[in-house]
Design a protein that fits this description.
The chain is an alpha+beta fold. The protein has one domain: PPM-type phosphatase domain (Phosphatase 2c, domain 1), CATH 3.60.40.10. Helix content is about 20%, strand content about 35%. It contains three helices and eleven strands; from the N terminus they run E-E-E-H-H-E-E-E-E-E-E-E-H-E. A hairpin with a 2-residue loop joins strand 2 and strand 3. Helix 1 crosses helix 2. The radius of gyration is 16 Å and the shape is globular. The mean pLDDT is about 90.
């Protein structure tokens, strides 16, 4: 199944796959893909721990991100930090895609890994990783600094929580559409000792 585009302007399609820790009925790992005029916000939020309290913190963060999706990633993390006071807190990585100039601005706090894999076989570097800063959104926010980079058609953005093994990119077939690719990563690389989530977003041809 091919996931629908976010909307016509951002020219993105996406897929997500997730699993709760065995024995839990809810997951604290959540995602967001939210279009706004001229772009889209993508991100993954991991509530600390697991179970209902982790899910509560993650839902609150996602709601804050969705409400202000068009703002800068730094501003969104700061808003989330304020909104999560009194909760367990979360770790999170978010990326804002600008469809007008074809750039991606991303930032991460904690250990939600993010990778941008280039479609051009001659691109150097062929893969870029989000710069993660230690901390907990809602408790201990580090100094924030976002990175901006160009993106091209068929480039693929992948976010994973720490419930996914870090070697998931080894021998991965990126020719798959985003939803089958997300399903494959989860099936092959979920640790099953924590909640796990995979978000795959691809820039569609113009």
């Amino acid at each position: 199944m091919v996931s629908p585009p976010v909307d016509r302007a951002p020219q993105l399609e996406w897929g997500v796959a997730s699993i709760a820790l065995p024995g839990e009925t809810t997951s604290g790992d959540l995602h967001i893909v939210q279009a706004f005029p001229g772009g889209a916000l993508m991100g993954v939020v991991d509530g600390l721990g697991h179970g209902a309290e982790a899910a509560l913190a993650a839902r609150r963060a996602v709601a804050e991100l969705a409400q202000h999706a068009g703002e800068s990633p730094i501003g969104l993390v700061q808003r989330s930090h304020q909104a999560l006071a009194g909760t367990r807190g979360v770790v999170m990585s978010v990326a804002s895609y600008n469809a007008r100039d074809h750039t991606l601005t991303w930032i991460g706090v904690g250990n939600v890994e993010g990778f941008l894999v280039r479609s051009d076989p001659g691109a150097r570097p062929a893969r870029e990783s989000i710069l993660l800063r230690g901390g907990v959104v809602g408790h201990d926010l580090p100094q924030l600094r976002a990175a901006v980079m160009p993106v091209a058609p068929e480039d693929t953005l992948i976010f994973v929580t720490d419930g996914i093994r870090p070697d998931f990119l080894d021998d991965l077939n990126l020719a798959e559409a985003p939803q089958p690719l997300a399903d494959l990563i989860l099936r092959q690389s979920a640790k099953r000792t924590d909640d796990g989530l995979v978000l795959v977003v691809r820039v569609r041809p113009k």
